[in-house]
Amino acid sequence: MRDTDISQDDTFPSLDERFLDTPNLDRLRPERVSTHPPRILLLYGSLRDRSYSRFLAEESARLLRRMGAETRIFDPRGLPLPDSVPADHPKVAELRALSLWSEGQVWVSPERHGTITGVMKCQIDWLPLVSGGIRPTQGRTLAVMQVSGGSQSFNAVNAMRLLGRWMRMVTIPNQSSVAKAFQEFDEAGRMKPSPYYERVVDVMEELCKFTLLVRDRSDYLTDRYSERREAALKAETEAQALAAAAMDGERKA
What we know:
Layout (H helix, E strand, L loop, with lengths): L2 H5 L31 E6 L7 H15 L3 E4 L16 H12 L2 E7 L7 H8 L15 E7 L7 H12 L3 E2 L4 E3 L16 H20 L3 H4 L3 H28 L1
Parallel strand pairs: 1-2, 1-3, 3-4, 4-5, 4-6
């Protein structure tokens, strides 16, 4: 068979047509348009008193509020290591509740040993992929930023992009990496004017736009063939088991 013959074969023996949903522009028009401010959660990855990742998160929150968003910054102090306490621990419950509240998130980490800090990873690891049938991060937008003590690097933002994809988040294209962060903030922790600051403004603008674009469409954007099929087959199996049990009960009666 020639390659041209293969390309003409538009049959799909492995596809369950019952659960295929051809993408539809009309479905991207939300049934309702939210009017509340975008809800953004910010996480940072350092416990130092003079924490540049916290300063950058706070500066980002100010910008987001200026752009009309509502913000929450999670304080990681007192958050236990993953799996060392039950999930109903107050700090864990607070973090998970904020993630559910959010429509978008900002992750800001220092770079340590070529990647994100343990403080940052600890927060992400406490966010489950699935909890009670709900995916606490799926479909939420994400912006990633890092601070470095030396020259500019992108190891931490690259690591957070990988984690964001794993958490099924919509990670925006833009990002920020602030080199020699100790030079970029004044004594009060405010970011000085610079190209780094302008990039942070760019990132927050983009995050707001993507959040407004995605938040009323996230259910449709994350509706998947494989999950629809799995749920339907599970329901069919359960219905068959119930019917068999009922018939068995009638015979015994």
